[in-house]
Structure formats: structure tokens, C-alpha cells
């Protein structure tokens, strides 16, 4: 019989609509981060580094990229004889077939997956945070408190506490109450969306609430457990943890990696982050290149000048092009003589010669002012920008664009330009 | 494919000087991210040779560590696989590999247990891309007994450490001189051979009986009148790394766009064991020109015309010119390095000065104390 002390269930089905065009073709956990990585690499690497070798990845929205990235889990050493990584999409049933309607509903629908490992504990993770965390010490905390549920929490500045789900604890870290986005927070311990359940407590709570529509951990399962009088504890985490849910927080988290001594350090030997590597060769720097305060992925060829930027793998930056405060994802190609300011260039995008991006006023975006904001320009994956055009700020560009889309060679700030087609 | 593969990866080369102290030539780091043997192994994989034996004995641990799992080269299969054979002491055998032919002969069961009709023999210290199927087709078309892959070197190149061959118009090898003092051909053997499996077994058994151990001397040269030995000319990039100068030059070749494009961007890709290192990181106040850098590097100094391998740390105000810095080297502040190969794991103290005056200088330093930022 298979027996795993703790298995992980990783929720990776969400769209992450506040990342705008970046999640138009892939789920948020599949979005590139920090040059060569994808967001899901962080929780997956945490699992294997914490000794959790059985991970169910729940997918629903646009799963192709996630499926191909995860494969059978080889990059994370999760190709195991028993356990390992399993991708769990919603499936048809004799009766009551439905999509995953909520976080806890998704877990409920995979009850038989969990049962097959006969676990003592189940770790619930979400695939959209950047952090390094030892789940084993969280489990030790759970066991030593004889807890039914342990919720990972992080102290946040009191004035920001109203944006989070807040846990109120006693001196033993036992949770006595909680509030969702309170106007007047009574504590600054924010839930990180990471839970350890004792298997019996989880199973009982899921079965009891099975009929609840949109069954959600924060809204239904945790309150149910508390009302029932179960032992809920808060595990305090004081490391780096970043929710990259919006374009601006995504951009900021990337930029934090290039600090001289970044708070989130990828260069630690003992807690490696693994990813499915598409490219192995070294990076080349041309005769007139210059790179400053940046990280650059494998196989990239830099002929221009790069400042304060995160560059992925197999990127080409042409001669005399200046890239500043930008994120350039894998396989993007940028021509020569251009200037790219505060721009996110998604995978495989093609930008012609002499293109200037990020020049203009701060007119809010016409279609999604809350997404494309702070002056950020986003060039979608597989987008094409013709040579000799100038583009403003708060702009989004998707598809194959031509000179007709840029009257007088100019796209002013705040525009959303969607065209059909892909590069190649 | 209708062949099994053998990679000869045993050799110690005195021409590698200090660089061979801790590793086999085939385990030498190449082009930032790779090892010598990756090229032959990747060629085997792309040629769909599914069963490959790697024969090694000198400093075999280095190779063993690199080849700890066969899955990175896609040899983790039920049908076929990758085997590392070091000399095994048995009741019948108590000697090291006494030569290339002896190395294969000591593993004759690998040949006897196979069912594929042909064998591809390759050396593991060459950088090239090749589909061995093309050689096999040529071999069959010529009704050859043995086919030797050859490369025409430019007239100015030295051939003294290779075997030179002379061919007739049909491609049959009429002359084969090992390490000639006076060369009368600029065509050299690349150390890649195709031969029928049964014939190889037969020739090897005869060699063992007669106490002969060298594949080139005792098979190719000795049998060239009796057997139909043909030359197949390789036209693409090919380079042997088994001397300090050639090793240096081969790595520097990767600064050329055409070489990078050929190996890195064109199909098929070269496989290696993934190091899982973060992207290279650049701080402020310096420049990098015409250089290759690998993952895990942290750079605070100036780098020109050089190749930095994985996890190199370059301190403030350093200048590195025309040099190879191998894996996991730490270079303290204000250091100047020119015309050097810095051995892996070296810790270079701050304010050091290293310059190769007449040719390439090899720098080997202890892995001492490091000051991490």
C-alpha cells in the first residue's frame, strides 16, 4: 500500500485576469518570472526542497503551457516511482459533472487522488506566489500544536492589513478569529493562502460542504472548521513572499531580483529553484554591448545596452538598442537602434528596428486602466511590432501589427492595440 | 538505428598539462555550459543510436559524475541505454585498458549481446555535430569493411598529433600514418569509425590473441591492404580539444556567430546535464564585450574576448581579457587576468595579476576562503 505522510495539492487553475494579456493564452502560474523561471516553479521547487514528493497540480484555465512545462516532473525530480507530480484537470462523471467552481471544490473533486496516497496531512498551495518556504517546518509546527488546520501567515504593515484576510491569534498562535479585508484590522497577520490540514479534518469538511456552490477555503472551509471547534493555528512566516497578481506587482517583483543583494536571493545553493530549461548555451555579448544591474538568461545575445532589466533565455537585443527597466521574456527578439523603456515584452514577441517604446504622457489606458497602469507597456506573446514606430505609455499591443496601426509612426499613450495573428 | 555506439573516453593527455589533473579530457568543460563528451553523446542520440557504451579509465570519476543519470541525453530507456565501462578485474582479466582496441575487447560481451549489425565508434574529446546515419549509408554504399570519418585541415594547421590519411579517387584509404613527423596529407582521421559488429568482434579477438591493443595501429594500419577501409569526409565544424592550445581555441571559436548559430540555434541541440543555476547577474560600473557568460555568474568587472563558465564570481574593478574562466571560480577585487585558463574551483585573491606572456597560462589556485556579498 502507498503511504505518504504529506501530499501537496497545488491550485493552478486560475486565470489571473489582472495580469491582462500575459494570461490570455496561459494560466497565471505558467507566466514567466525572473528570466528563465515560471511562477509555478517556486511552489514546486519548495515542495521537493521540503521533502514533499507527491504533488497534485489542479489545472483548469488554459492548461497547455502548464502541462508541457510540468511534463512528468523531471526538472523538479518529481518523476517518482510512487507519487511525483500529477496534473489534475476537471473531468466528466456519471452525474454532477462540473468545472472546478472554487478552490475547495477543486480539492473535493480530487478526493480519490488524495485517498490513493493514504496521507496524514494535506498541504494546500496556490500557484501564484513568489517565495521560498520550508513546508516541513510548517508541518512540524502543525504536529507540535496537535492542530487540525494550520494557516501560513505573514506580518504586513498595519495600514496594508485591510487588503488581506487577517488572522487574530492568541499568545499560543491559535487562531481565535479572522476577518476578510477588514476596515479596522485587529491584527496584521495576513493569510498567505497556504494551509496544512490533517487529512481527517479536511475530508470531513469537504464532504460536509460538498453542496456549497463555489466551495472556497477562505470563505467556507476555514469558517466551518472554526465553528466546529477544531484547532486552527497560524504559522508565522517572515521571509520574502510576493503576490504577483497584478501587472505592477509582477513588474516590481521582477525588478527586486536585480538589486545588488536582493531580498529574494536566487543564488543560494541550498534552496535551488528548478525549472524546465528550454535552453542551455551561454549568453553572448557583442562588441558594443553594455549590461548594468540586470539578470540575463541562457542563450541570449546582447548587442545593445541593457539597464535595470530582467532578460529571459534566447532573447536577442539588437545593436544600439537601449533597454531600461523592462522585462524581456524567453525568445523575444528586439531589433537594433531602438529604445525600450518600462516595458514587458512577452515570449516570442518580435520588435523591429528603431522602435521606441515608453515615450509620451501618462494618459490612462482606454480599455483596462486598472491593468495597464503606472506607465507600463505590455507587448503580448507572439506580437509583432514593425520597425520605425514610437509607442507611448500605458499601452498594450497584441497580434501582428503593421505600419497602418501606427498613424505617422506613432501610437499614443493609453492605447490598446489588438490585431490577429502570431509571429512566425 | 542499425548500430550500437561506443565512445572512447579513456585517454589521458599530457598535452592538457595541469588541466588533466582532476578530470578526463572528455569531461573538460566546453563553451560555458557543456562537457566534451556531450557532443559525441548528443550525436549518438540524434542519430538514434539507442545503446551506447562509454569506455573510460583515467580520472573516470569526473566523467562518472557528469554521466550520473542517462536521462539528460535521453538514454534512460528500457530498450537501449547508456553504460559507463571502466576496467573490471575478473578471474580472466587483471589489467587496465592497454589501448583503444583492448578497451573494446575487454567489453566484448557488449558487442556480442547486441543484435544491431553495425557499430559506431567515436571519441569523446571532439566538438562536432554529425548524423552517423550518413556515414553508415556511405559505408554500405561503398561496401566498406571499415569507414573512417576524416577531416581536411587547413594547410597551415599542425597534424602531428593526429593520424593522417591518404585516399584514392574512390575514397579508399591507401595510406594511414599515426602522428606523422613529416606530414604528406592534410586529411586527418577524426577518430570516428563505422564497422560491422561481427567483423569488429573477429578483429578484436585476433588482436587479443596476438597481444595487440591499439585500434589505429593494430587494426586500421595493419589491415589497410587486406580490408576495404574507406574515408568519409566531414565538412562541418570539427575540433579536437585534447591539447591546451586546441582546447583554448575551440572555446574561443564559440565567440564566432556562425559557430554559436551552428551548435546552439540550429537543429539538433546539444544535450548536457542541467545545472539549475539562476540567470547571470550584472551589477554596475564595467563592460562586457565579445564574451560568453554562463548561468550563475555574478559580474562586477570588465570582461573582453573571454568565456566565463558557470558560477563565476568577478569582483569589482577586475579586468579579464582573452581568457577562459572555468566553473565556480571566485575572482577577488582589482584582479587582472589576460591570456589565461583559470582552472575550476580556483579562488583568486584580490589584487592578483595573471598574464600569459608566451602562449596560454594555466592558473590553478586552491579553493580558499571566499567573501560573498
Which terms would index this structure?
heterodimer; A: 424 residues; alpha/beta; nine-stranded mixed β-sheet; seven-stranded parallel β-sheet; 8 helices; 33 strands; elongated; B: 373 residues; Spore Coat Polysaccharide Biosynthesis Protein SpsA, Chain A; UDP N-Acetylglucosamine Acyltransferase, domain 1; 2 domains; seven-stranded mixed β-sheet; five-stranded parallel β-sheet; 9 helices; 28 strands
Describe this structure in words.
- The complex is a heterodimer of chains A (424) and B (373).
- Chain A is α/β, with parallel strands linked by helices and 424 residues long.
- The model of chain A has no long low-confidence stretch (mean pLDDT 93).
- Chain A has 8 helices and 33 strands.
- In chain A, a hairpin with a 5-residue loop joins strand 9 and strand 10.
- Chain A is 16% helix and 27% strand.
- Chain A is elongated, with a radius of gyration of 23 Å.
- Chain A starts with 5 loop residues before the first strand and ends in a 6-residue tail after the last strand.
- Chain B folds into 2 domains: 3-265, Spore Coat Polysaccharide Biosynthesis Protein SpsA, Chain A; 281-372, UDP N-Acetylglucosamine Acyltransferase, domain 1 (3 Solenoid), CATH 2.160.10.10.
- Helices cover 21% and strands 28% of the residues of chain B.
- Chain B has 9 helices and 28 strands.
- In chain B, the strands form 7 sheets. Chain B has a 7-stranded mixed beta sheet with strand order 5-4-1-6-11-8-12.
- In chain B, strand 2 and strand 3 (34-35) form a beta hairpin.
- The model of chain B has no long low-confidence stretch (mean pLDDT 93).
- Chain A binds chain B through residues 34-36, 74-75, 258, 260-261, 266-267, 272-275, 277, 280-299, 301, 310-311, and chain B through 31-34, 71, 254-255, 260, 263-264, 269-272, 274, 276, 278-285, 287-296, 298, 303, 307-309, 373.
Amino acid at each position: 500500500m502507498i503511504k505518504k505522510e504529506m501530499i501537496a495539492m497545488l491550485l493552478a487553475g486560475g486565470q489571473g485576469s489582472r495580469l491582462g494579456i500575459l494570461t490570455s493564452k496561459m494560466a497565471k502560474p505558467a507566466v514567466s518570472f525572473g528570466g528563465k523561471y515560471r511562477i509555478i516553479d517556486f511552489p514546486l521547487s519548495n515542495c521537493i526542497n521540503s521533502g514533499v514528493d507527491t504533488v497534485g497540480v489542479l489545472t483548469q484555465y488554459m492548461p497547455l503551457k502548464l502541462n508541457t512545462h510540468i511534463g512528468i516532473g523531471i526538472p523538479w525530480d518529481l518523476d517518482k516511482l510512487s507519487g511525483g507530480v500529477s496534473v489534475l484537470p476537471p473531468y466528466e462523471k456519471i452525474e454532477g459533472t462540473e468545472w472546478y467552481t472554487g478552490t475547495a471544490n477543486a480539492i473535493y473533486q480530487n478526493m480519490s487522488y488524495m485517498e490513493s496516497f493514504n496521507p496524514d496531512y494535506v498541504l494546500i498551495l496556490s500557484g501564484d506566489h513568489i517565495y521560498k518556504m520550508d513546508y516541513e517546518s510548517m508541518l512540524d509546527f502543525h504536529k507540535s500544536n496537535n492542530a487540525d488546520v494550520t494557516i501560513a501567515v505573514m506580518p504586513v504593515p498595519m495600514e496594508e492589513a485591510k487588503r488581506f484576510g487577517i488572522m487574530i491569534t492568541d499568545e499560543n498562535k491559535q487562531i481565535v478569529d479572522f476577518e476578510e479585508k477588514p476596515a479596522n484590522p485587529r491584527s496584521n497577520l495576513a493569510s498567505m493562502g497556504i494551509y496544512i490540514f490533517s487529512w481527517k479534518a479536511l475530508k470531513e469538511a469537504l464532504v460536509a460542504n460538498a453542496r456549497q456552490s463555489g466551495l472556497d477555503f477562505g470563505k467556507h472551509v476555514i469558517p466551518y472548521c472554526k465553528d466546529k471547534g477544531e484547532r486552527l493555528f497560524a504559522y508565522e512566516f517572515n521571509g520574502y513572499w510576493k503576490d504577483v497578481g497584478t501587472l505592477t506587482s509582477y513588474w516590481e517583483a521582477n525588478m527586486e531580483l536585480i538589486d545588488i543583494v536582493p531580498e529574494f536571493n536566487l543564488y543560494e545553493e541550498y534552496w535551488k529553484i528548478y525549472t524546465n530549461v528550454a535552453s542551455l548555451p551561454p549568453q553572448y555579448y557583442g562588441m558594443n554591448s553594455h549590461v548594468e544591474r540586470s539578470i540575463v538568461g541562457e542563450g541570449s545575445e546582447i548587442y545593445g545596452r541593457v539597464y535595470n532589466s530582467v532578460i529571459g533565455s534566447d532573447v536577442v537585443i539588437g545593436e544600439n538598442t537601449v533597454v531600461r527597466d523592462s522585462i524581456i521574456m524567453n525568445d523575444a527578439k528586439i531589433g537594433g537602434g531602438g529604445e525600450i523603456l518600462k516595458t514587458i515584452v512577452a515570449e516570442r514577441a518580435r520588435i523591429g528596428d528603431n522602435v521606441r517604446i515608453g515615450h509620451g504622457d501618462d494618459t490612462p489606458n482606454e480599455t483596462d486602466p486598472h491593468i495597464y497602469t503606472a506607465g507600463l507597456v505590455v507587448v503580448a506573446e507572439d506580437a509583432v511590432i514593425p520597425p520605425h514606430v514610437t509607442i507611448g505609455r500605458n499601452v498594450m499591443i497584441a497580434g501582428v501589427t503593421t505600419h497602418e496601426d501606427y498613424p505617422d509612426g506613432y501610437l499614443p499613450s493609453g492605447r490598446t492595440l489588438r490585431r490577429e495573428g502570431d509571429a512566425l | 538505428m542499425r548500430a550500437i555506439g561506443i565512445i572512447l573516453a579513456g585517454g589521458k593527455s599530457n598535452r592538457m598539462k595541469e588541466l588533466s589533473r582532476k578530470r578526463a579530457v572528455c569531461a573538460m568543460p566546453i563553451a560555458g555550459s557543456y562537457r566534451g563528451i556531450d557532443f559525441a553523446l548528443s550525436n549518438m542520440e540524434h542519430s538514434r543510436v539507442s545503446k551506447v557504451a562509454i569506455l573510460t579509465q583515467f580520472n573516470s570519476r569526473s566523467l562518472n559524475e557528469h554521466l550520473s543519470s542517462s536521462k539528460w541525453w535521453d538514454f534512460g530507456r528500457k530498450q537501449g541505454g547508456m553504460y559507463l565501462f571502466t576496467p573490471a578485474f575478473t578471474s580472466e582479466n587483471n589489467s587496465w585498458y592497454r589501448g583503444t582496441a583492448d578497451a573494446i575487447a575487454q567489453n566484448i560481451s557488449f558487442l556480442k549481446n547486441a543484435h544491431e549489425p553495425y557499430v559506431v565508434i567515436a571519441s569523446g574529446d571532439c566538438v562536432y555535430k554529425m548524423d552517423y546515419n550518413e556515414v553508415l549509408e556511405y559505408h554500405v554504399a561503398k561496401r566498406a569493411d571499415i569507414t573512417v570519418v576524416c577531416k581536411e585541415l587547413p594547410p597551415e594547421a599542425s597534424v602531428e598529433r593526429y593520424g593522417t590519411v591518404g585516399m584514392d579517387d574512390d575514397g579508399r584509404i591507401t595510406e594511414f600514418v599515426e602522428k606523422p613527423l613529416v606530414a604528406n596529407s592534410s586529411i586527418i582521421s577524426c577518430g570516428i569509425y563505422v564497422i560491422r559488429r561481427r567483423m569488429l568482434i573477429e578483429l578484436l579477438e585476433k588482436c587479443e590473441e596476438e597481444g595487440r591493443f591499439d585500434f589505429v595501429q593494430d587494426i586500421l594500419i595493419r589491415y589497410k591492404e587486406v580490408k576495404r577501409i574507406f574515408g568519409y569526409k566531414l565538412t562541418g565544424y570539427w575540433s579536437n580539444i585534447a591539447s591546451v592550445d586546441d582546447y583554448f581555441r575551440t572555446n574561443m571559436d564559440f565567440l564566432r556567430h556562425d559557430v554559436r548559430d551552428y551548435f546552439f540555434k540550429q537543429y539538433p541541440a546539444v544535450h548536457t546535464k542541467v545545472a539549475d543555476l539562476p540567470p547571470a547577474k550584472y551589477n554596475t560600473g564595467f563592460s562586457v564585450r565579445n564574451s560568453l557568460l554562463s548561468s550563475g555568474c555574478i559580474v562586477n568587472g570588465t570582461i573582453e574576448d573571454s568565456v566565463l563558465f558557470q558560477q563565476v564570481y568577478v569582483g569589482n574593478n577586475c579586468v579579464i581579457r582573452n581568457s577562459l574562466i572555468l566553473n565556480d571560480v571566485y575572482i577577488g577585487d582589482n584582479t587582472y587576468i589576460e591570456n589565461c585558463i583559470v582552472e575550476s574551483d580556483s579562488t583568486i585573491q584580490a589584487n592578483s595579476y595573471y598574464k600569459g606572456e608566451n602562449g596560454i597560462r594555466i592558473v590553478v589556485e586552491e579553493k580558499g576562503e571566499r567573501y560573498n556579498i
